[in-house]
Amino acid sequence: MKFFIDTANIEEIKKAWELGVIDGVTTNPSLISKEKREPIGLLKEICSIVDGPISAEAVSLKADEIVKEAEKLANIHENIVVKIPMTEDGLRAVKRLSAEGIKTNVTLIFSASQALIAAKAGATYVSPFVGRLDDISHVGMNIIADIQDIYENYFFDTEIIVASIRNPLHVVEAAKIGADIATIPYSVISQLIKHPLTNIGIERFLKDWEDVKGK
Ligand code: E4P
C-alpha cells in the first residue's frame, strides 16, 4: 500500500519524507490557500522534496479550460498529476489528457458509480472522500470496498486513493480492503506511529536499565 501525504505544508512534507513512509503528495485548492504562497512556486518546491506523484488541482470547470490548465500544471514537473473534479466536463478533459499522456486524479468522488465512470474515461487515480461521507452519516469506507471489487472485476488500471482520511482506523480499514493508496494528513501519520503502551514500555525499560547500571 502506498501512502501519500495530504497537505501543501512544506515542513510537514519534509518531516513525512524523512520518516521514509510517504510515496507522494496530494494537494487541493483549500490546502494550497492555507500556505499563503504563490501556488506554482509552492508546487515546484514540493516536487523538489518528494520523488513521487504530486497531485495539483485544476480549478477550471469547462473541459477546454481544464485541459489548458492541466497542461500548464503538468509542465511544472514530470511528477505532477492533475486533479480534476468529477463532472461531465471533468471526464471530457480526463479523456483528452489521458490521450496526451498527462496523469489525472479524479477527485470529489462520493459513490462507486462515479469511480466506475471515471475509470472508464481513463483516470489514472480516483479519490473517494471517506471522511466527508462519514460526516453525513454514510459509512465512507463501504464505497472503497465496492470500488475495489469493481476495478478487480474488470482489471481497471485506475488506482484508488482513499482520501479525506480523518483517523488511523480509516487507514487500517483501507489497507484491509486492499486500496492502492491512502492520502493522509500529517496529524494522522503521527497517530499511526504512536501507542501509549509503547511509551510506557520505553519508560519501564529505561527505568530498569538505570537500576542495573548502578550495580
Ligand atoms: C485529497 O485528495 C482531498 O483533497 C482531501 O483528502 C480532502 O480531505 P478533507 O475532507 O479532510 O478536506
From TrEMBL:
Localisation: Cytoplasm
Cellular component annotations (GO), alphabetically ordered: cytoplasm
The enzyme's E.C. designation: 2.2.1.2
Recorded catalytic activity of this chain's protein: D-sedoheptulose 7-phosphate + D-glyceraldehyde 3-phosphate = D-erythrose 4-phosphate + beta-D-fructose 6-phosphate
Record-linked Pfam families: TAL_FSA
Keyword Cytoplasm set for record: yes
Active site (record annotation): 83 (schiff-base intermediate with substrate)
Pathway: Carbohydrate degradation; pentose phosphate pathway; D-glyceraldehyde 3-phosphate and beta-D-fructose 6-phosphate from D-ribose 5-phosphate and D-xylulose 5-phosphate (non-oxidative stage): step 2/3
MF GO annotations: aldehyde-lyase activity; transaldolase activity
Enzyme class: transferase
Keyword annotations from UniProtKB, A to Z: Cytoplasm, Pentose shunt, Schiff base, Transferase
Xref: NCBIfam families: fsa_talC_mipB
Similarity field: Belongs to the transaldolase family. Type 3B subfamily.
Protein name (Swiss-Prot/TrEMBL): Probable transaldolase
Organism of this sequence: Dissulfurispira thermophila
Lineage: Bacteria, Pseudomonadati, Nitrospirota, Thermodesulfovibrionia, Thermodesulfovibrionales
